């Protein structure tokens, strides 16, 4: 039986011109528009743009940022307080020869001095408009964010015994600085505005930290236990009722399983050196996936672990679990990844990493680390039989935590204890109205009658021919399949390399072929892959050509093929001439982005699959060249899944989470919000009938294309994978499990919605 049950419920302006580097608006460090582009910024554009987007920094009125200019000491203090969300006060009296009560900047400096973030100079001055050195910056950062740690390297100009030694090493140990290529840190140099911005962006958001490129020694991974805590949960009578594990991550927050803190009145943590801290409370939780985010009263002197992804491990990889089983603090166990599992039930689905490292009671909520030191999972549950242990994939944790990245720590609110749900193990919950649960259930809606044609082999991806009764797909064995759903004739064609995605255009199929595994650390200069072109008129292989890219998704227009890369983090989308097979153009894109071609063939949309919040981007194209590209005006404002479909008229982008956006040629209106419909897994359009259809599980829903109102719903047999409309009829690719063995069978079903409903 499981030793941990996985609980789920479906359930302002600047006073001085010289200080215009900073924005004093601190209401909410978020933006719904694109950050400005500075004409003098060529390095660290993403970091500077990120901080500008958060409202933390701003440039000058001449649209410059002046990245090489030095940061002033007062500026640094103001920015640090703003990042933390601390309101400056004149409650303390400080004695500086050059800064007194009533002076501009006095409240900020007084507050920072009281908090131990800064101090004055030996001559009794503070020198608010003096240049801040890199060494002074390191001390301010370490003091403000409670950074500690020892880097595994040494800087040539920072020696043990130097006053800055521990501060510089704390920055390096936390991934905020790596120094210069010559091995120096240059502590006496004035810190430039762009470097200050980079360091701050790295502290706020792990995505800006340099990636770990080489596996760590086992002892280096085990040393991550300094970031793991034991969680003690008490009831209102101060009785210990539960104990588990957790770890410190972005913004000083602590991650654990929800069932660890379930029913508690307050919580304490014990750290690796025996210190005990009471926690302020719960910031957020996800009952479906058994995640809780906890907040200490203050930033703790603990290094923050970086959250990775299930894609960072594969079967056979070494992993290390750290936790406090049976109260034995900081127990380390090692094992391998047994598999990556996808579980689903009653509309809930999640990914888990199965592993062999021994864990038991008290390990819940602890991190599962790969050999690069990233958290790839949160230990969640296990089975005693066969030592089958499972960790929730870190992707789900990252999705939840992402809303609190960039939010000032001291502005993070908590949920009152009495508003937290209490889950009773093994007992049914009462309905929300407090009434009794009954035995009566609504009878299931009968499935509509369809014409059904079962497939011999299941398809992992598929696409419909726009005018012929043909479905193309890639089957589980990597073959290309052509299925005529009227004649039931099936053709199969083998490919010499693993195939992943396909796209129909010009009476051709364009298929991505892989020459390696997608990886965040497979850099573009080393990537390789291929594209297959198949003539659909004859269903024969026309050409396979190699590309210097790891292909992830593919679209095409009349002459060019466009391919996104699946590896290398910030990488490229490239275009290729479909007749000469030569590369034509490229543009930057996030790895593993899905593509959608506008029917006008003048724009490609891309959506990220490995970032949170997800991001949509538009690429304008002309004659195979990327002429411009820009992000969506939103960042985490609306629910987004990894899949999106553009309407047949090219006017709307339908994200499968149910969020609908405009698709226009104007940047001011492109990708702006329209409305929300029910989430779906498949969508098809019938412009002649002014209707579009969505499929989710076994339910088909018809919507009016003008009003987006629901017109009708039907239930079909099987789970809907893909939808298409042909001559008013709905063509569906569905999956069923008709046998007791659980074997899944796919079918093509044809349904006439007008005959059934009078649409």
The helix-and-strand class reads: mainly beta
Please state roughly what percent of the residues sit in beta strands, choosing from under 5%, 5-15%, 15-25%, 25-35%, 35-45% or over 45%. Answer: 25-35%
The residue-averaged pLDDT reads 88
Tally of contiguous helical segments: 10
Q: Low-confidence parts lasting 5 or more residues at pLDDT below 50?
A: 1-33, 426-442
CATH class of the domain at 218-419: Mainly Beta
Topology:
Elements: H1 45-54, H2 73-84, H3 106-114, H4 134-145, H5 165-173, H6 193-204, H7 218-222, E1 228-234, E2 240-248, E3 254-256, H8 258-261, E4 266-270, E5 276-286, E6 291-296, E7 318-323, E8 331-345, E9 348-355, E10 367-369, E11 375-383, E12 388-393, H9 394-401, E13 451-454, E14 459-464, E15 470-475, E16 480-484, E17 490-493, E18 499-505, E19 508-514, E20 529-535, E21 540-547, E22 551-556, E23 560-565, E24 570-577, E25 583-590, E26 593-597, E27 603-608, E28 616-622, E29 625-631, E30 644-646, E31 652-655, E32 659-662, E33 673-676, E34 682-686, E35 691-696, E36 699-704, E37 710-715, E38 719-726, E39 729-736, E40 745-751, H10 753-757
Antiparallel strand pairs: 1-2, 1-4, 2-3, 3-6, 4-5, 5-6, 7-8, 7-10, 8-9, 9-12, 10-11, 11-12, 13-40, 14-15, 15-16, 16-17, 18-19, 19-20, 20-21, 22-23, 23-24, 24-25, 26-27, 27-28, 28-29, 30-31, 31-32, 32-33, 34-35, 35-36, 36-37, 38-39, 39-40
């Amino acid at each position: 039986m499981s030793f941990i049950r996985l609980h789920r419920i479906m359930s302002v302006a600047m006073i001085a011109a010289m200080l215009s580097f900073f924005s004093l608006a601190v209401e909410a460090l978020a933006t719904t528009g694109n950050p400005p582009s500075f004409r003098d910024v060529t390095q660290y554009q993403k970091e500077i743009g990120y901080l500008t987007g958060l409202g933390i920094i701003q440039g000058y009125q001449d649209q410059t940022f002046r990245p090489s200019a030095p940061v002033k000491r007062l500026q640094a203090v103001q920015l640090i307080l703003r990042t933390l969300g601390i309101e400056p006060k004149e409650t303390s009296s400080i004695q500086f020869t050059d800064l007194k009560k009533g002076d501009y900047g006095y409240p900020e400096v007084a507050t920072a001095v009281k908090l131990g973030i800064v101090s004055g100079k030996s001559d009794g001055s503070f020198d608010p408009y003096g240049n801040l050195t890199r060494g002074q910056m390191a001390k301010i950062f370490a003091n403000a964010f409670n950074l500690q740690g020892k880097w595994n390297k040494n800087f040539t100009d920072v020696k043990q015994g130097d006053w800055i030694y521990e501060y510089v090493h704390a920055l390096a140990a936390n991934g905020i600085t790596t120094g210069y290529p010559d091995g120096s840190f240059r502590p006496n140099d004035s810190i430039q505005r762009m470097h200050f911005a980079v360091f701050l962006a790295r502290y706020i958001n792990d995505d800006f930290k340099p990636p770990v490129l080489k596996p760590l020694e086992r002892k280096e991974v085990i040393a991550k236990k300094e970031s793991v805590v034991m969680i003690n949960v008490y009831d209102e009578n101060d009785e210990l009722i539960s104990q588990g594990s957790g770890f410190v991550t972005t913004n000083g927050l602590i991650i654990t399983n929800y069932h660890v803190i379930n029913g508690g009145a307050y919580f304490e943590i014990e750290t690796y050196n025996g210190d005990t801290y009471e926690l302020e409370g719960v910031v957020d939780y996800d009952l479906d996936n058994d995640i809780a985010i906890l907040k200490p009263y203050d930033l703790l002197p603990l290094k923050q672990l970086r959250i990775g992804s299930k894609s960072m491990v594969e079967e056979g990889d070494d992993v290390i679990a750290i936790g406090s089983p049976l109260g034995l603090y900081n127990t380390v166990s090692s094992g391998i990844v047994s598999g990556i599992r996808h579980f689903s039930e009653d509309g809930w689905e999640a990914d888990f990493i199965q592993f062999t490292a021994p864990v038991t009671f008290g390990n819940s909520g602890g991190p599962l680390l790969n050999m690069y030191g990233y958290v790839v999972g949160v230990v969640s549950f296990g089975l005693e039989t066969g030592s089958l242990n499972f960790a929730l994939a870190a992707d789900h944790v990252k999705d939840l935590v992402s809303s609190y990245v960039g939010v000032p720590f001291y502005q993070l609110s908590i949920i009152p204890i009495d508003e937290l749900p209490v889950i009773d193990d093994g007992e049914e919950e009462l309905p929300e109205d407090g009434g009794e649960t009954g035995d009566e259930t609504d009878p299931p809606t009968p499935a509509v009658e369809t014409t059904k044609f079962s497939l011999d082999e299941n398809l992992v991806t598929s696409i419909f021919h726009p005018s012929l009764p043909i479905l193309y797909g890639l089957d589980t064995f990597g073959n290309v399949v052509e299925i005529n759903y009227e004649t039931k004739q099936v053709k199969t064609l083998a490919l010499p390399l693993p195939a992943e995605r396909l796209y129909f255009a010009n009476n051709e199929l364009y298929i991505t072929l892989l020459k390696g595994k997608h990886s965040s650390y497979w850099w573009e200069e080393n990537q390789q892959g291929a594209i297959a072109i198949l003539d659909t008129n004859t269903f024969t292989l026309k050409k396979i050509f190699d590309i210097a890219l790891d292909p992830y998704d593919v679209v095409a227009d009349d002459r060019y093929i466009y391919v996104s890369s699946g590896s290398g983090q910030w990488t490229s989308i490239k275009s290729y001439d479909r007749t000469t097979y030569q590369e034509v153009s490229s543009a930057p894109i996030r790895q593993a982005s899905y593509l959608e071609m506008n029917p006008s063939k003048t724009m490609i949309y891309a959506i990220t699959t490995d970032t949170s919040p997800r991001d949509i981007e538009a690429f304008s194209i002309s004659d195979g060249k990327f002429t411009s590209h820009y992000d969506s005006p939103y960042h985490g404002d609306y629910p987004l899944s990894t899949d999106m479909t553009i309407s047949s008229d090219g006017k709307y982008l339908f994200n499968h989470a149910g969020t609908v956006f405009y698709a226009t040629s104007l940047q001011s209106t492109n990708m702006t919000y329209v409305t929300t419909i029910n989430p779906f897994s498949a969508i098809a359009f019938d412009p002649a009938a002014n209707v579009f259809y969505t499929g989710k599980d076994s339910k088909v829903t018809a919507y009016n294309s003008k009003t987006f109102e629901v017109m009708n719903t039907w239930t079909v047999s099987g789970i809907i994978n893909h939808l298409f409309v042909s001559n008013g009829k709905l063509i569906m690719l569905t999956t069923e499990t008709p046998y007791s063995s659980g074997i899944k069978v796919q079918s093509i079903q044809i349904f006439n919605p007008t005959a059934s409903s009078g649409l």
